[in-house]
Design goal:
Layout lengths: L1 H101 L4 H13 L2 E2 L5 E2 L6 H10 L10 H15 L3 E6 L8 E2 L24 E4 L8 E4 L6 E2 L3
Parallel strand pairs: 3-7
Antiparallel strand pairs: 1-2, 3-4, 3-5, 5-6
Length: 241
């Protein structure tokens, strides 16, 4: 009987020991799982902090870049306004100088008027100078250059109109102007070597009849379309400027 009681006690003790060990194992597993969760939470918070830091840094750079861009635009605008002001001031000075020069008789214009009076030549108020002698195109140009001038150049409708009215009202004859294609056939150039952009040609001109019409005259019969190419060897009146 005592032996049976002893066996029962041992069985109970063994069962209690197993239960105790099982409980300790469960507690250890729960603790380990809790530690893993804590690590994951810590890592996640660390990643979030890093992302926030990166975002803040990027925003700082973006704001700085935008501020620099605005500053650059402002400096550019200020520079543009300053340049515009300088150009406007310069333009005003040039216009004033132009008006001053136009209001004066220069020594050259006085000298030309005296020369014109002596030789029976004609000097226009608009600054055109011509001889009553008839010369070919080359001699006409040389005459102009001997007086520090050159054959007339026309590059605007305003000047075309002014010159046309002058030769029609004051001269009544055709005149040489500083335009030819002597150097290269079909390539009209002014005496300053600039190419012809727009011409005031008579209908059907230039036609280079017989391949020998290389110099240009103005005809007094009309105002805008009065240019004609003729042989350079022909003699005629001319205009210098």
């Amino acid at each position: 009987m005592e032996k049976d009681t002893s066996d029962i006690s041992r069985n109970i003790n063994n069962t209690s020991g197993l239960q105790t060990q099982s409980g300790q194992g469960r507690r250890k597993g729960t603790k380990a799982q809790g530690n893993r969760c804590l690590v994951l939470i810590t890592v996640s918070l660390g990643i979030v902090c890093i992302l926030l830091l990166i975002t803040i840094i990027l925003q700082h750079f973006m704001i700085t870049a935008e501020r620099d861009k605005i500053k650059s635009y402002k400096n550019t605008a200020e520079g543009f306004n300053q340049t515009r002001f300088c150009l406007h001031s310069r333009y005003t000075e040039v216009e004033e100088k132009k008006l001053e020069l136009e209001s004066k008789d220069t020594p050259l214009s006085n000298e030309l008027k005296k020369e014109a009076s002596k030789q029976g030549n004609l000097c226009a108020a608009d600054g055109f100078f011509t001889s009553i002698e008839m010369k070919n195109w080359s001699d006409s140009r040389q005459f102009c250059r001997d007086h520090g001038l050159d054959l007339l150049i026309i590059k605007s409708k305003v000047k075309q109109t002014t010159v046309s009215k002058f030769i029609k009202e004051k001269m009544g004859v055709t005149v040489w102007i500083g335009l030819s294609d002597i150097e290269k056939e079909g390539s009209m150039k002014w005496v300053d070597n600039s190419p012809l952009n727009n011409g005031s040609w008579m209908k059907g001109e230039p036609n280079d009849v017989a391949g020998n019409e290389d110099c240009v005259i103005m005809n007094p019969t009309s105002i805008l379309e009065n240019w004609n190419d003729i042989p350079c060897a022909e003699k005629g009146r001319f205009l210098c400027e």
